[in-house]
Amino acid sequence: MPPRKRAAAAAGQGELLSVSSTKEIQDILWKAADKLRGSMDAAQYKEFVLGLVFLKYVSDAFAERREELAADPELAQIPEHRRAAFLEEKDEYTEKNVFWVPPTARWDHISENAASAEGGVGKLLDEAMDEVMKANKTLTGVLPKIFNRDNVDQKRLKELVDLISDARFTGHGDRPAQDVLGETYEYFLEKFARAEGKRAGEFYTPASVVRLLVEVLEPYEGRVYDPACGSGGMFVQSGKFVARRRGKDHTHDIAVYGQEANERTWRLAKMNLAIHGMDPKGVGDRWADTFADDKLPDLKADFVMANPPFNMSDWARKSDDRRWRYGTPPQSNANYAWLQHIVSKLGDRGSAGVVLSNGSMSSKQSGEGEIRAAMVEADLVSCMIALPANLFRTTAIPACLWFLTKDKSPQGAKALEDRRSRVLFIDARAMGTMVDRTERVLTEEDLEKISDTYHAWRGTKSAKDKSLSYEDVPGYCYSATLEEIEKHDYVLTPGRYVGAAEAEEDPDAEPVGERIARMTKELFEQLDESAKLDAVVREQLGRIGG
């Protein structure tokens, strides 16, 4: 039964899922993941299920475009024997950024033949993945062909195909398949990250942390780079930011570039970009280690966003690397290798946001203090943000955000505040809300407060549009000079600069002088009572001794 008819037959679903049923789609697909959990390792079943979801997406998007073509009044003018051929013209799909899906890779064909396919449903799916990759060069080597392996329960796989057939990514009003599936893919990445715990760090950064990086940097246009791109979350959120602020027609105002060392994670990134209508070529044609094999040696980016592995000791270090302009990072910790690599990628007015462990702000081991001092003196550090605990399920290590920039001047027509030789410190440790016993998220209000603080300090257009002005707030934010930072021995921990929050005055509170007099009187009374008790105790002890 074709997916549309199958969905119609499902009780309570009607012919098509409504806009509000995106959550229902997600629940169906998570059930699908659970069906396979026992028969393969976590990394494999993640790739397995997301690969299937992607195949369903490209098929639904293809069907959506095909229905548009079939409904075109001009098609009625074409002789009937040519209409079918017209609907199979590849260019009619690819020119609209829709992947071409060969007939035997379309979900209708897979669903109808899942039970009877020669060699089983696993072979059918592997062949479909292969055909889609051959038909679309940007997907070469990306889709998983792991469905016909010995450790895959073919009966469960057939049930999975049936479940996915009940989830339709088209027919959601004015929301295209791309939007619905994009949300579903992100939902899956988050669910898998929760399931895998610490192992998820290589492919997932919490959404609220990514949002904060994007809201501070405001990547409206230009080149966006991530040297440890994981599953591509920084790119996706950058695209969403542009769509939210300037409209979907402007999402191609940014071009994304990234690199990922893990093969499976690189595949996830390619699919994630494709699903969100972004160019998968941005993350290269192969996975590679950023330090050992920089695939973009000449790139100069307008924005860099990264959440590299914290405190990495196993990395490809070359002491004579030209990226180490501010000092050679130690083999024992790659934090300052990441920071200097990122600086090397910034254009003349480029800016960066980097997630690192708190230790990076104060460490003096193996020359790290000297490197930090050199970067501060080069006026590269724009803002430091201390994050609250429990934002990352993948690590218990407290984290912070580094914001770097090549140009703190007013930048001509932009008329920004001149922040040369100054650094903004923000202490956000008290922010966020716990969503469960172990995980905290930054709320919309938190994100707005932090990003508004930065933009007010920098004097950006968004701050001027809101009539924001900057002022230091004890316990929260402080604009420090380089001289002040030098006095603190170039330690960049925000708590050293913002000080303690001012206590709010209670209008009904007792005046200080009166409170001191009252407490003094009470203390003397208690001392007198204590002396009386002391005398009684001594008298009793004397009788016992006598």
Automatic annotation (TrEMBL):
It catalyses: a 2'-deoxyadenosine in DNA + S-adenosyl-L-methionine = an N(6)-methyl-2'-deoxyadenosine in DNA + S-adenosyl-L-homocysteine + H(+). Gene3D superfamilies: 1.20.1260.30, Vaccinia Virus protein VP39. Residues 178-506 form the DNA methylase adenine-specific domain. It comes from the Bacteria. GO terms for molecular function: DNA binding; endonuclease activity; N-methyltransferase activity; site-specific DNA-methyltransferase (adenine-specific) activity. Pfam families: HsdM_N (PF12161), N6_Mtase (PF02384). InterPro entries: D12N6_MeTrfase_N (IPR022749), DNA_methylase_A-5 (IPR003356), SAM-dependent_MTases_sf (IPR029063), T1MK-like_N_sf (IPR038333), Type-I_RE_MTase_Subunit (IPR052916). Keywords: Endonuclease, Hydrolase, Methyltransferase, Nuclease, Restriction system, S-adenosyl-L-methionine, Transferase. GO terms for biological process: DNA restriction-modification system; methylation. It is an enzyme of class 2 (transferase). Residues 26-164 form the N6 adenine-specific DNA methyltransferase N-terminal domain. Its EC number is 2.1.1.72. Belongs to the N(4)/N(6)-methyltransferase family. This is site-specific DNA-methyltransferase (adenine-specific).
